[in-house]
Each structure stands twice: as structure tokens, then as C-alpha cells.
Design brief:
Length: 459
């Protein structure tokens, strides 16, 4: 274990918190190097890549840290299972949500695993980057990252030869769509015993019918963004056999009306102004409307001059959002028919907290500082970053009074910025990046106060 230096209480806390992870590692060399790697991510410094961290930690050479994070093909499942258990202890429950999203790591070169021209959410445009599919367990305004899995784009610049050189395991060599990766991660978290309610996701995971149907067949509640032109029918749409003017009669049903776009379906709905949380500049609000619909994502049928049209599928909520800046968003959710409009709005807005969960590891823990090119290195660096983030959130959730834990009442403001440069090599920073105890900010909201309450929809 690493020792010495100022902040011994912080050191002791980290050693105790990492103990179950180290037991899962098994190998003694890995057990020795895991604590300094996590400490290097948490500590101060401009760069959180391997060589600068080794220098600040006083390790002499960076070879051992590099070997720990990049060498071998060991199974990450035990550490991921322990991370899910820790997250469940902190935030798990029926009112917790595992937010599905992805985050981009910009890259200048093309040799790193998964690096290719693709949409970078951090930049708001298409750029050369790596993409990680993320799952963030959130309860109210408190996020804990529980999964970061590399996405491998199927492109000429990131083809089979590149994946082979990067050491991508055979079982993940075939590129998978982001929704498929997200479902596998949700299955992993459920198998680990993580407790949660609805699964929110952004519009990148909503347009595909299989990506929406996969949670439904698992008896999961979900809420996903969709494009405004996604077609849907009213919930009372009927299936009919139209009379054939000539030729053989129809043998398959068709809907008795067209499927208009989502924005047209909600055009005449009753809209209400709803606020869903407390913010630094008051309570943010937007106007919402919701109707029960059947999404046009069933089997395709030819309907006269309209050509092939998709049949009505599962009955769900269509939720519209009109923001104060004029922007309009649309969502689908399979929450029960009796869910209130306020609860629907709270569910679709629950995913905002994942932006904070992406920002903090990048700005404070060096998530995007990894300079290796291998699959194993990127996956383990991301895993160590999520472990470090969970540890710091655990310290925030632990009150100063006798070590009592306050679930869901952690400060949600950004942590203090790290110093511009760490002048002298030391194993531990003088003060933790996120202090163990700090005054509750005015914009803090208890998770329990943000709990979704189901009830009838009111116009």
C-alpha cells in the first residue's frame, strides 16, 4: 500500500474503501499499484496520464503503473461487480435511475482503439474521438458512475486490423450499436444486484425500436428521447381490413388512420409549466404535455398510395417539452398509464445529472488524459476513474457527525479546481480534491424530495 505524507485521514479512508476491490484483484502486484493509480487520479496536477502521475507519486519510474493499467487481458467483471455494490449502498433504490448516455474523448491521432470521425457530444459536432457508453446511477441530484464501456465504430479508419492491433478481445471484435452495449450493461448491473427504477436515455438511444423494446421485455421502465418526426398513432387506433376494390382481399390488418409525427400529435395537447428541481438561479421550468400513443414501430405494411407504413406498436407515453429558449424536445416512456405529468417530466429530466458525472471525471480525474492505444488500457483507465469518482462521492455523502451517511444529500456543485501545477512529488495531496465535509449549497436538493410519485395525469 502507499503511505506517508499529509492528509493521512484521506489516505486511510481510501485504503479502507479500496480493500474489497483489492481482494477482487487477487494478484499482489496489482493490489500494490491500484491505490497509487486511484490516488494519482484524485490528486492535483495538470495531467493525469501515467508518466506525470508516477512522477507526482514519487514512484521513480512509470513502468509499474503502465503495466498495471495496460498489460494482460484480465477480467474486469469482479471490479465492476464491486463498484455496482458500492453504488447500490450509496444510492440504490426504486427511486434511483441508471442514466444511459455516452461521452466523447477527443483524439488528434487515429491509432487509439475506437478513435474515428464520429459525433462528439462534448464538442457538439462530428470530430475524431473515442466514445464511451456510460451508465450513471443517479438519485435526485447525486450521480455515481457505474459503467464506462468503449464503443467501437464500424468504419474504414477503425476496422478489424486496427482492433486486432489494439488487443480488442475476440468476444467484442464485432462492432455493436450503442443501444446494444447499454442493454448489456444494464443486464450486468441487474445481475450484480443494483436497485433502480426507470431507465432514462437521450435521443441517441430512442429512435430504434429494438433499443426501446429490449428494456420492455425485461420488465424495465424507461424514458428515451426521440426525433420530432418520429411517427405515432393515438392509443385508440384500430386495425381494420379495408375493402379491396379489385384483386384479392387483404389478409393483414392496417391502421384505420395515418401515423403523424410526434410534434403533430402533441400540437393540440394541453401544455403545463412544470419545475423539476432547484437550481443556482432559481427553479428551472419548461412547458410539458403528454398523451398515450402507439409508436409506429411494428411490422411494415403497404397502405395504398402511402407505400410501406409501420404498424402501431406498444402503447406508451409521448411527452413533449417546450423550453424557455424556444427549443422543443420529445420523449417516449412506458411508465404506467396513471402516471402524473409532473412525474413524467421529472423522469425525462432525471438524465441531466449525467452531464455532471461526465464533466467531473474529465476535469478533475483525467478521464480523457489516457495516452495509451490499447483496449485493455482504455477500459482499465476508465474503470479506475469510475472507482475514484465513486470514492469521492462516498466522501461527500458521508456527514461529519460520527461518520453518518446521508443518502442523496451530497453537494452537487463542481469540486474545487485542482492546482495548475503540482510543484513537488508527493504521494497524497495536502487536502482531498473533494473534501469530506462541506456546507450544503443553497441549490442542494434531497434525493427523497425529488422522488417520482405516480398519480393521475392532470390537464
Amino acid at each position: 500500500m502507499v503511505g506517508g505524507g499529509a492528509g493521512a485521514g484521506w489516505q486511510s479512508d481510501l485504503e479502507r474503501w479500496l480493500a474489497p476491490f483489492l481482494a477482487r484483484l487477487g494478484h499482489k502486484a496489482r493490489q500494490r499499484m491500484c491505490p497509487p493509480y486511484v490516488a494519482g487520479l484524485i490528486g492535483p496536477g495538470d495531467r493525469k496520464s501515467i508518466q506525470p502521475m508516477a512522477e507526482r507519486l514519487g514512484l521513480g519510474t512509470h513502468d509499474r503503473l503502465h503495466h498495471f493499467v495496460s498489460a494482460g487481458n484480465r477480467n474486469a467483471a469482479p471490479l465492476l461487480e464491486e463498484l455496482a455494490r458500492k453504488a447500490d449502498d450509496l444510492l440504490g433504490g426504486d427511486d434511483a435511475v441508471p442514466v444511459v448516455d455516452d461521452t466523447a474523448l477527443p483524439k488528434t491521432g487515429s491509432a487509439s482503439v475506437g478513435a474515428a470521425p464520429q459525433y462528439a457530444s462534448a464538442l457538439g459536432k462530428r470530430a475524431n474521438c473515442q466514445t464511451l457508453v456510460s451508465l450513471t446511477l443517479a438519485r435526485g441530484e447525486v450521480p455515481v458512475m457505474v459503467g464506462l464501456r468503449p464503443f467501437l465504430p464500424d468504419s474504414r479508419t477503425a476496422g478489424p486490423e486496427r482492433r486486432r492491433r489494439a488487443g480488442v478481445p475476440a468476444e467484442v471484435q464485432t462492432p455493436r450499436a450503442k443501444p446494444g452495449i447499454a442493454i448489456e450493461e444494464i443486464d450486468r448491473l441487474r445481475a450484480a444486484g443494483l436497485r433502480f427504477g426507470a431507465v432514462p436515455a437521450d435521443a441517441g438511444y430512442g429512435p430504434s425500436a429494438p433499443s426501446r423494446q429490449a428494456p420492455s421485455v425485461r420488465d424495465l421502465r424507461w424514458a428515451v428521447g426521440i426525433p420530432r418526426r418520429r411517427k405515432a398513432c393515438p392509443a385508440d387506433v384500430a386495425r381494420i381490413f379495408p375493402a379491396a376494390g379489385r384483386g384479392r382481399p387483404r389478409r393483414r390488418h392496417i391502421p384505420d388512420r395515418k401515423s403523424p409525427p410526434a410534434e403533430a400529435v402533441l400540437a393540440g395537447a394541453a401544455w403545463r409549466s412544470i419545475s423539476w428541481r432547484r437550481g443556482t438561479k432559481g427553479r428551472p421550468s419548461a412547458r410539458f404535455a403528454a398523451l398515450r400513443v402507439r409508436v409506429a414501430d411494428g411490422p411494415a405494411r403497404r397502405i395504398g398510395d402511402l407505400g410501406n407504413q409501420h404498424m402501431p406498436g406498444e402503447e406508451v407515453w409521448l411527452i413533449g417539452e417546450r423550453r424557455t429558449n424556444g427549443e422543443r424536445r420529445f420523449h417516449l416512456s412506458n411508465l404506467p398509464a396513471g402516471t402524473s405529468l409532473r412525474a413524467l417530466a421529472a423522469t425525462v429530466k432525471a438524465r441531466w445529472v449525467c452531464e455532471q458525472a461526465h464533466q467531473q471525471p474529465k476535469e478533475e480525474l483525467g478521464l480523457d488524459h489516457f495516452e495509451g492505444r490499447s483496449w485493455a488500457g482504455l477500459r482499465r483507465h476508465a474503470l479506475m476513474t469510475t472507482i475514484a469518482h465513486a470514492f469521492l462521492q462516498a466522501r461527500r455523502l458521508t456527514g461529519a457527525e460520527g461518520g453518518r451517511t446521508h443518502r442523496g444529500t451530497a453537494a452537487c456543485a463542481r469540486p474545487a479546481r485542482r492546482p495548475a501545477r503540482h510543484a513537488a512529488a508527493s504521494v497524497w495531496p495536502a487536502q482531498p480534491t473533494m473534501p469530506a465535509s462541506q456546507p450544503k449549497p443553497r441549490n442542494q436538493t434531497s434525493v427523497r424530495s425529488a422522488k417520482v410519485v405516480l398519480g393521475p395525469v392532470r390537464a
